[in-house]
Amino acid sequence: MATKPKLAVVKSVPVVKTTLPAALREELIKRGREMIKEDIARETTQATFLSIKGKEFTVGGESASIKGGEEAVEVVLLNSIAERAYYPGPFKDGSTSSPICFALAPTPTEMELHAASSDKQSSNCDGCPWNKWETAPIGRKGKACRESRRVALTPRNDLGRILMLRIPITSVPAFQQYLRTIGSQDYPMNRAITRLTFDPAESYPKLLFEFVQPLSESKWPETEQRRAEASTLLRQPFSISAEPVAPIQQKKAARRK
């Protein structure tokens, strides 16, 4: 067994002498302490995930049944990255266990194994044996390494709250087409209110994306801030917040004639 390297222990930090004016020095010290808090929070914040198991939107253990085309959750999408995750054996949807090997990147072509992977299965994703078709433990055609899209979003009625959603590979084409559609109208994802529902024609949770309306211009600065915050959360290793949270409010979707 390889010997773990010893961590360097800093016994003391030397005090640096300064000739700055006292008022300026105090202001810089104050700002420095704020940055320390931000640094620590950034590395310890855990994302709360929105689950779609069983065609139900579940947040923090609170569940509400979503019937495709009849009920919906309205959100503002913030940002997204590609995700790959390998679990030894069949993956159990809703499990809070972490994959032993995973990768996160803005696009699938930029995939690199995450440093937090406990047991890297290959030196890169392209050459990994689990990234090949017909390697899934269940079924013959799928890959053992699960592909998905990790999306950060915020509920329409609570723009200060960031949630994460994993879009299964079967729903990714619909997501991409939706982004192209609103993009053609000059709406980036964080300036549009989006309705999430499930495809009623499918037994598994296949997501549908529908444009509701533009986000009010007065809310643009707020969602820009949430988008910046989401960029950090999106790259967090696999972990789910244990804090109890309230469910997203459900809204009736307009029935199509």
Topology:
Elements: H1 22-44, E1 49-51, E2 56-59, E3 62-65, E4 71-86, E5 101-105, E6 145-155, E7 163-168, H2 172-183, E8 192-198, E9 207-214, H3 220-234, E10 251-252
Parallel strand pairs: 1-7
Antiparallel strand pairs: 1-2, 2-3, 4-5, 4-6, 4-8, 4-10, 6-7, 8-9
Query: Rg to the nearest angstrom?
Result: 22 Å
User: How far from one another are the termini?
Assistant: 67 Å
Count of the domains? 1
**Bulk shape:** globular
Helix content: 10-25%
How many distinct helices? 3
Which secondary-structure class do the elements indicate? alpha+beta
Instruction: Classify the beta-strand content into a percent band.
Output: 25-35%
The secondary-structure element order is: HEEEEEEEHEEHE
Strand runs, count? 10
Task: Output mean pLDDT.
Answer: 77
Largest pleated sheet: 10 strands, mixed
Low-confidence stretches: 1-13, 64-70, 240-257
- Quaternary structure classification: single chain
Task: Describe, in plain words, how this protein is organized in 3D.
The chain is of the alpha+beta class. It has one domain (50-252). 19% of the residues lie in helices and 26% in strands. It has three helices and ten strands. The chain has helices at 22-44, 172-183, 220-234, and strands at residues 49-51, 56-59, 62-65, 71-86, 101-105, 145-155, 163-168, 192-198, 207-214, 251-252. Strands 1, 2, 3, 4, 5, 6, 7, 8, 9 and 10 form a ten-stranded mixed beta sheet that branches. A hairpin with a 4-residue loop joins β1 and β2. The radius of gyration is 22 Å and the shape is globular.
